[in-house]
Amino acid sequence: MEPLLGLAQGEFFLVVLFVALPIAAIAFASAGKVYDEIGKGAFAMDHQDHEGGGEYGGIGSSAAAQAEIRQMVEAKSYRRVARGLEPLDVDAEIARLMTPTSPPINDPELVEEVRQMVEAKNARRTRRGEQPLDVEAELQRRLTELGGAGPGPAANPIGPTRRGEPNE
Question: 81: which residues sit within 8 A by CB, 6+ positions away?
Fold first, then answer.
């Protein structure tokens, strides 16, 4: 095989190396600021559109959430009317949805599992020489964190649902 440009294979490799390496280094050094801008700009999600809060926090989010809840409840009422059912009282439904109380947790196995967890935590605290927690108060707090008002009778504010039954 005839040498390319009259250069042996090793010489050709060195020429390519010494020509391409400085060009690549200059391109890399001049593009450093460009790499810092990756993920930023008009379409980035790490900035807020306006002062006073973004979509999920701040001053404007409460009004936006209220408007979206009203829109969903009105759509639910409209679907009920389309099926021939009585329309919802939108304001009463919004008030019911916005109440901070949660239904009690009526799963005895879950309540017992949380109770065992609290008792185990108390045992660890006692071994460390710390004051044990009030089991019932801590049980209530943990169940509230899980999304319920604590142990209580079965209560489902939405009502029974069956598969295949359309949502209201």
Answer: 87
